[in-house]
Design brief:
With 474 residues, the chain is α+β, with helices and mostly antiparallel strands. The chain folds into 5 domains: 3-35 and 201-261, eRF1 domain 2 (Nucleotidyltransferase, domain 5, 2-Layer Sandwich), CATH 3.30.420; 41-113, OB fold (Dihydrolipoamide Acetyltransferase, E2P); 118-198, no CATH class; 270-379, Aminopeptidase (3-Layer(aba) Sandwich); 402-473, Hypothetical Protein Ychn, Chain: A. It contains 13 helices and 26 strands. Helix 11 (402-419) runs parallel beside helix 13. The longest helix is centred in the middle third of the chain and has 23 residues, at 305-327.
């Protein structure tokens, strides 16, 4: 299987696409002011204890307190008090060093942990926990060698790559992570909560770090500054991948150049066509995502109907699995396949779905057929679903948010300005999009102006549709 990672940096937005065998399977989007905060380390303050859960609310300077579960707080408890509950070792007003483990999502607050993790290339240091976790499959000699290197009083989670690493290489990485931990404590010691102690990497580096474990054969980036930042990160954390990194220049869209633009368009549509005919209709509501298989004209008369239904359902299983991963659907997912009377056909469709989901790193779990003839599955939430980033909820339709349209217009302006240097792009948009460019997307507009070393005008056209825009070069 060939894997390629394509990263596009545009004003206000960075997008990364993981392609397998020429087709997009993952799309990640990071926006100015909307990036993930997972990994940030804060000096927080306990504002409320919830012993019945057990949990605590921690003020880290966000709009609302972060949520600390009892499980994520237990490492701070003295051994003789762990059974007594969270109130036995935490108190309201207490300063605590926490790391963000989950972004705020809907009505769920930011999640934090007292179990800090400092990730390296070969291992993750867990300085507040003394347990050592060695790679599965390591033999007695390997375990003895690794344990002799690991620090007493501090924990570590070793990756499989550590088994083959030289002793000096492991020692240097442990020393670097310990020095980082010393720096964190020194910055936290004089601080008053709430206080950010360690920020996360730039958006393009965060996107790279989150996908690079897929070991793509090529990593292509269309921006020179982002290319340099990613190269520095790879040299430090994944030097074996540096030779796969390249700057991919061109005035057109990188996703169009590499043949995945159509896949991204499909991920932004409520309806996705199936190869034998028919389509998938994908809707997401608060409680679940529902995928309906619409046969259209693909299932005809009675004689061929069972075979046609099976063919459409097998195609739907493969396409649904791809769309689930591409859209980053999470939680409860229900697929309404075309009805099949044959138990053997249902088994075949379920097997096709399982095979198509097998490579998904979010580890979907198929629960099976319901009594109503639907397939239920769950998928671990790793980050915000694509729909939450790009669309506004509107009566079951996928309606692009004003920010999405504004950033699309700026991306088009940047491409056209790059193709014809020296000319000033004027962005012509609907009034609602103009308001967004003056408000939520103002930072992206400034970023484009800084890139071009000029002010980018915005012209309002009340007569055009909301999603339509033009770029005029003067």
């Amino acid at each position: 299987m060939s894997r390629e990672l394509l990263i596009s940096v545009a004003p206000g937005e960075t997008r990364a696409v993981l392609a397998e065998n020429g087709g997009a399977v993952e799309l990640h989007v990071a926006r100015l002011g909307e990036g993930s905060r997972i990994g940030e380390i804060h000096l927080g303050r306990v504002v409320r204890l919830l012993p019945d859960l057990p949990a605590a609310l921690i003020d880290i300077g966000a709009e609302r307190p972060a949520f600390l579960s009892g499980e994520d707080a237990v490492d701070a408890a003295p051994p003789d008090k762990r059974a007594a509950g969270i109130a036995a070792w935490l108190s309201e007003g207490q300063a605590v060093l926490v790391q963000i483990t989950r972004d705020a999502q809907g009505d769920k607050a930011i999640g934090v942990s007292l179990r800090l993790r400092l990730a390296g290339r070969l291992l993750t240091l867990t300085p507040t926990r003394s347990k050592h976790v060695l790679p599965p499959g390591s033999d007695a000699d390997q375990r003895a060698r690794l344990n002799s290197l690991l620090p007493a009083g501090e924990g570590a989670i070793l990756l499989p790559a550590a088994l083959a690493a030289e002793r000096e290489t492991l020692h240097d990485e442990i020393a670097a992570l310990q020095a980082r931990w010393v720096g964190i404590r020194e910055r936290a010691r004089p601080a008053k909560p709430p206080c950010l102690v360690e920020a996360v990497e730039a958006p393009v580096v965060r996107l790279l770090a989150g996908i690079v474990d897929a070991a793509p054969e090529r990593i292509l980036i269309d921006d020179r500054a982002a290319f340099a930042a990613c190269r520095r990160w790879l040299l430090q954390h994944r030097p074996e991948l540096v030779s796969r990194l390249a700057h991919d220049s061109g005035s057109d869209d990188i996703f169009e150049r590499h043949g995945v633009a159509g896949d991204l368009d499909a991920a932004m549509s409520r309806r996705v066509a199936l190869p034998p005919g028919g389509s998938l209709i994908i809707d997401t509501v608060a409680a679940m995502s529902v995928i309906d298989v619409d046969s259209g004209a693909a299932v005809g008369g009675r004689q061929g109907a069972p075979r046609a239904a099976l063919a459409v359902n097998l195609a739907a299983a493969r396409v649904a699995a791809r769309q689930i991963r591409l859209r980053n659907l999470a939680g409860a997912i229900v697929i309404d396949f075309i009805s099949m009377r044959s138990a053997a056909d249902r088994t075949q469709v379920l097997a096709a779905l399982a095979a198509a989901l097998a490579g998904d790193p979010a580890e979907p779990q198929i629960l099976g057929w319901t009594r109503l003839g639907h397939v239920e599955l769950t998928r671990r939430r790793t980050s915000r679903p694509l729909a939450e980033i790009l669309f506004d909820a509107s009566a079951g339709e996928m309606v692009k948010s004003s920010r999405t349209i504004a950033l699309e217009a700026l991306r088009a302006a940047a491409r056209q300005a790059a193709a014809q240097p020296g000319r000033t792009p004027t962005v012509i948009v609907h009034p609602e999009i103009a308001a967004t460019l003056a408000g939520a997307a103002a930072g992206a507009l400034r970023e484009l102006g800084e890139r071009l070393a000029l002010e980018v005008p915005v012209t309002v056209d009340p007569g055009r549709s909301r999603e339509a825009f033009d770029i005029r070069l003067d």
